[in-house]
Amino acid sequence: MNRTRAILSKAAWSVFTILFVIILNFFLFRVLPGDPARAGIRDPRLKKEAIEVLQVRFGLDKPVINCFESLNPIKFGSCNVNPLETQFFIYVGNLLQGELGISYHTNRPVGEILSERLWNTVLLIGAGQVLAILIGVALGIFAAWKARTSVDYGAIALSLFAWSLPTFWLGIILLFWGSANGFPLAGKATPGMSSMPPLQQWGDILWHMFLPTLTYTIVYMGEYTLIMRSSLMDVLSEDYILTAKAKGLSMFQILKDHALKNAMLPLVTVIAINLGFTVAGAIQIEAVFSWPGLGSAIYEAVVRRDYPVLQGAFLLIAVAVIAANLLADLTYTYLDPRVQVE
Amino acid sequence: MQTTLKPSEPTNLISARLLGFWRVFKKNRGGLIGFVMLVSIVFVAIFAPAIAPYDETSASTTTISDIYQPPSAAHWFGTDDAGQDVFSNFVYGARVSLTVGFFAAFISIFIGGLFGLVAGFFGGRWETFLMRFTDIMLVIPDLPLMVVIVALTRPSLLNIIFVIGLLGWTTTARVVRSQTLAVKSRKFVLRARAIGAGKGHIVSRHILPLVMPILVVQAVLVISLAILNESALSFIGLGDPTTLSWGQMLNYAFGRGAMSTGAWWALVAPGFGIVWVVLSLTLLGQGLEQVLNPRLDTHHLMPNKPTVHVDAQPPKTKSLLEVQNLSIDYVTEGKLPAHAVENVSFTLREGELLGLVGESGCGKTTLMLSLLRLLPAAGQIVNGHVFFKGQDLTALSEEELNKIRWSGVSIVFQGAMNALNPVRTVGDQIAEAILRHMPDFPKDQIPARVTELLDLVGIAADHKDHFPHQYSGGMRQRAMIAMALACNPQVIIADEPTTALDVMIQAQILELLDGLRRKLGLAIIFVTHDLGVVAEMCDTVLVMYGGVTAEYAEVDVIYNDPRHPYTQELLKAFPDLTKPKKKLSSIPGYPPRLDALPPGCRFAPRCPLAFERCQTESPRLHVIGADGHVASCHLIEASK
Amino acid sequence: MSTEHLLEVQGLKKYFEAGRPALFSRDTRHVYAVDGVDFNLQRSEVIALVGESGCGKSTLALLLMGLEDPTGGKVTFEGRDITHLNDHQRKDLRRKIQMVFQDPYESLNPTQTIEEIVTEPLTVHGIAPHKAERDERVKKALEDAGLKPADVYLGRYPHELSGGQRQRVVIAAALVLEPEIILADEPVSMLDVSIRAEVINLLAELRITRQIAVIFITHDLGSVGFFADRVAVMYLGRIVEIGTMLEVLESPQHPYTKALISVIPVPNPRLRHERIILQGETPNPINVPSGCRFHPRCPVAMDACKASDPPMITLSKTHQAACLLLVK
């Protein structure tokens, strides 16, 4: 079956992309000059023994990668060492066991820190995306239906404006407004809430989520509106819509049975491509609202120069986006009967 | 031979093209606003020293009382956390943000354009490699990667430009590749190869000119993304500490107490700058896109202009379908209405096959769509009536008309690929019509009925659950006919159902329609530009020219005693295998444009027999003989 | 005799790979687009290649133009083998063989003026380097193609012209190189009937005024009767019948030709006639039927047709057809 083949090839491709990210992540942190572990070692005031202790602690005494002379004539890396004892293999081995290193700042395992935060980010992005898609699609449908009326022009203008807003700035403005109107300023929960019944705890979280989610929704809604509008305009000017009209179907039936599914297809592709951008939004929003997610982990790691956390967070985000992208791709394959191979 | 064209003036091509572009662009309101907004902020950036009231680096004479001063005459936008003038910083910040945006975008566009062009044009391994790489880079989230790289290197302006530029090319590469592929597959590129042109010539003369517009639009969008990315990086704390971009200003203000002191001015001004630039670029990009790649921006569900009702007359005959003096205009804002169809009348008896013949653009499709009021939004019925079984369709409400559509009169459109919904099975689309118009039809009988209908047009039952793309061209047209038969209509309108099909398939479809007519007693209106097709099976023929009836008669009369010069000329242009070696003649010139109709007879400019009167006065329809033969030509009156 | 032919095609084949039937299958399937075509062309002769879509006529055109590489067979031009040429030789040859495409709306670059379009072949080949000479040739080509006076058209863009005029521009761009053969691939099928004759008459004139040979590819037998010297009918990658125009149109021998001729519309209701309507459609050239490739649709097929592939039977000096019924 062609469809099975398409799905297999997409899944294989995602695995390959994840491998690429792992390698990229490793080398970025080894090759670029900023890591204080190595920068510190170069400090001339340190004694030789101290340097060695540090090197052993960060695993820097091992060669970066090995080289097989037969495969690699330019002799990149250290030759003739046990490949299992290179930094790269240790890194990959640790990854496989879920170990992402120790935070410089808190001395806690990075994996532990990030796993607490991952679900907060998923919660924020999930809620924001769902709302942005729902509102954006609804507005897009309405604009296309009422094409070239003031409703349509208004929706387009609003969407273009929303699209042009820097995410963090909208967050700041909403926070400014929210602080004057009794909204919580930071975090995910009011301190001391953990002793309350679960329903109240959730209510508290939703209350804290309100402003970050609102920011997220506004920023991403505009693009979905514009795409849905233009996609629906394209579909509604197709000949088969005229056929449907000639068949005597009502306006509502035509929209529901002939236009929406077809018009949603491009949107699914866009959602897939956009996943990378949505993470960008999450970093900014979490930084503004101190929402304890992966984004604020990145923000704090940058401020504190906490590189293991930065490295881990990047890896986790990239893998999550790749997986979500695969999911969107597969949805498309499922929705469009025309998908054959590639 | 063409007298309407004037000799072209020798002009500088490039400036002429730019001028032509500007003429269209300036009508695009959004694009123009964006352009003016962008020019204004670039102006501010360039003349920053002259505009800013305070020097870039002056920390004035900072005392505690200078910090977070509200807006005043001395400081229009107040002061910031360092006691500096926010307005001056805003003006200088424009320089930084725009510099980063333009340079980073330049890098992105260069890489993306190159990758896209190479992958699209050369294909093969290059394409596989470049596009796979692009796909990987597209999936990896941008901003986190930028954060990692800038954090690991020194956050200088140059680093930031390079990082944003080197990571922002992926969408450009994809867009350019698909445009290159599209241009490359066009026939003029094949023709250039056939001429003997090499790869370099083809890329520079044929591919690039058509990829460039897309690249310009893309560049505008990439600049805005780069500016947004720069501000986000700066806000996170990875801005160049030696310069003050808008993002950097927000970072300082947000991080140093503007929120708690309520100093909104320090937060609003820089954000406003970013919004201004990004919005201007977005508007400009949208405007450029609309000008370079114009879309009609209309669709089939938009409401029509209301039908103009004139003195309701009863039908004159007892025909199944009677069309009386139907006139249709296309009304576009700011333009004179185009008279697409004027005063066309005809009748259709039960079981009759009427051929509607005319060149493309003569209004025949418009006329057919208007019978069921399916005109595009700009189309308006301005005169006349359509009686179906004595009921005036032009006077019905949309709901009443919906009951007659398909169950009384159905349509087979040309190009069945587009007339069938690609994501629903053919059987499902046929069943839909039955469900809609025959509510009493037993639900469990519907699949059997669909099979029966498909069988009637010669499609095997196992194709019922296939999608249209799994059908061949001929089968799709058959499926369309099966769908048209679904609700037992009395009239089928077939709008060029065989155009673009092979001769043999065309013959199959014609035979099918003719057979169905005899078997089911259908009346058919067959629209075509091919006189030969019509001769084979029609009872009556209506020849249209430029939106009016040229001649209307029984089929034998049209072919053996045509009275309108247009009919006569059309027949001479048609190859007749019974008279081989006869030289074909063609009608010089081309049909009139509907928005620029000649003042007199619409055929006069191409008519070999035209005389003075034809240039000024349009002929009326003259009755010739008893059996309904009519033609619109001044010569007929003269010969009487 | 063979050296006298302007163009000679022998056993020309083109197979495209059509991917594997299954994911892990080893053998690839082939599309037998052109599967052994022979014919020749004399100086200033018009030959019509007729067939339905999928018969391989467009691939044949690309092969003759050297825009695709043949899988097998041989093409000779003026006695020289031109089947496989390097880029340089190919470019030289292009001056001699020019092509006119089906869709005049697509085959002109919308960003070029008519002058640029017609001048381009000269620039590409470095002919007439002086502007005055070049302009003169361009104008002459335009006027020979019926666009008179040429000055009116030079500065215009394709979208300002009608379909017939655009096709004349394409022909002018071919004429400017003074070719010996024009290969016209369905040049009128996109045009309205009323202006088709315009383009056909122009091509017919050129073979007389400029001694140009024309290969006219079409799906419509009806449109070729008036100026073709010979007609070749193609089915599924092969020529099934070839003969002079009168031989093929008035006494067709292959059942496919007979059917094709019977469905040509006759513009006279008094001459309504019996038509032979073939059932089904041309099979996919991936699965070429055994024996005679026409047998599944043939109204007069015999058992023997399933097994043996009929050879070309010579019926007269000029007339040949491939059908077992003709074997005596």
Protein architecture, described:
The complex is a heterotrimer of chains A (342), B (640) and C (328). With 342 residues, chain A is mostly helical. Chain A is built from twelve helices and two strands, in the order αααββααααααααα. Chain A has a domain at 110-335: MetI-like fold, CATH 1.10.3720.10. Chain A is globular and about 85 Å long. The longest helix of chain B has 40 residues, at 199-238. Chain B has 25 helices and twelve strands. By secondary structure, chain B is of the alpha/beta class. The model of chain B is unreliable at 1-10 (pLDDT under 50). Chain C has two domains: 1-96 and 180-190 and 207-328, P-loop containing nucleotide triphosphate hydrolases (Rossmann fold, 3-Layer(aba) Sandwich); 107-178, no CATH class. Helix content of chain C is 29%, strand content 21%. Chain C has ten helices and twelve strands. In chain C, the strands form two sheets. Chain C has an eight-stranded mixed sheet with strand order 6-7-8-3-9-10-12-11, with helices on both faces. Chains in contact: A-B, B-C. At the A-B interface, α1, α6, α7, α9 and α10 of A face α5, α6, α10, α11 and α13 of B.
Features:
heterotrimer; A: 342 residues; mainly alpha; MetI-like fold; two-stranded parallel ribbon; 12 helices; 73% helix; globular; C: 328 residues; alpha/beta; Rossmann fold; 2 domains; 12 strands; 29% helix; 21% strand
Task: Write a brief caption for the model.
Chain A has 12 helices and 2 strands; from the N terminus they run αααββααααααααα.
Biggest interface and residues each? A-B, 84 and 81 residues
Helix segment tally of chain A: 12
Oligomer: heterotrimer
CATH-wise, what's the superfamily of the domain at 110-335 in chain A?
MetI-like
Q: How would you characterize the largest beta sheet of chain A?
A: 2 strands, parallel
CATH topology of the largest domain in chain C: Rossmann fold
Rg of chain C over CA atoms, rounded to whole Å, is 21 Å
Shape of chain A: globular
CATH class of the largest domain in chain C: Alpha Beta
- The CATH level-2 architecture of the domain at 110-335 in chain A is identified as Orthogonal Bundle
Number of separate domains of chain C = 2
| Largest beta-sheet characterization of chain C | 8 strands, mixed
In which order are the strands of the major sheet of chain C placed? 6-7-8-3-9-10-12-11
Question: Order of strands side by side in the largest beta sheet of chain A?
Answer: 1-2
Q: What value does the average pLDDT of chain C take?
A: 89
* Annotation, overall tally of beta strands of chain A: 2
